[in-house]
Predict the 3D structure of the following.
Amino acid sequence: MCRTQRNKQKNVAARRVNAIEENCENSETIYIGELKSVNELDTKETNCVWYEKIYVNKNPVMFKLDTGSQVNVIPKSEILKWEEKPAVRKCKTAVLDYSDNKVPILGLEACRELGLIQRLNMIYKIPIETPELILKEFVDVFTGTGRLNRIVKIKLKENSVPHVAAPRKVPLAIHNKVKEELNNMVEAGIISKVEERTEWVSNMVVIDSTKKLRICLNPGPMNEAIQRPHYPIPSADALVTKLQGG
């Protein structure tokens, strides 16, 4: 541990900084570098600051990891808490600090020897999630027709009145395209032919886009007659808590 007197005059400190810049190759001067954000100057330490508990002579010390520091620093106030206090002598090397924080600091070399930090020589490029990348990553979700592999039972309300909707007219220009698409849906097992009378009939809605012909149903009256099970949909926070075992 080094014990040096701190000069409290601002003009003297300014002259020392200039001397550091001019004599940066002086081997007898060691600097403690620290970068702090603007918002951090007048506030408490943020979560981005890294502390580690290191035992020094069987005494636990919370060191602040500072890779900009060339030395390890333990304040005198910290050593005075120990039961067995080591001998303290004046430091032969000038240790200069740019902050007023009197916290134990673990320098770059000690951080590397203790395995607390690691030099990375590789830069990972994280691609931006575009619609094309999402489609490529989850190709099984966006391929084919989404179908349930079980029979779904729809329960209607008691005393519900069946509704038969009048068929909508299909433009003559797309008759063949609609018929071809209906046959494809029958072959794929999406729909089936109904050749007998039914109590419920919904409108067929045809959407003719430039890419593909879409055929849908408009079961508005039937939706009002369906008896829905009351099941609360869990929120995202509840699902995350459940996945974490909470």
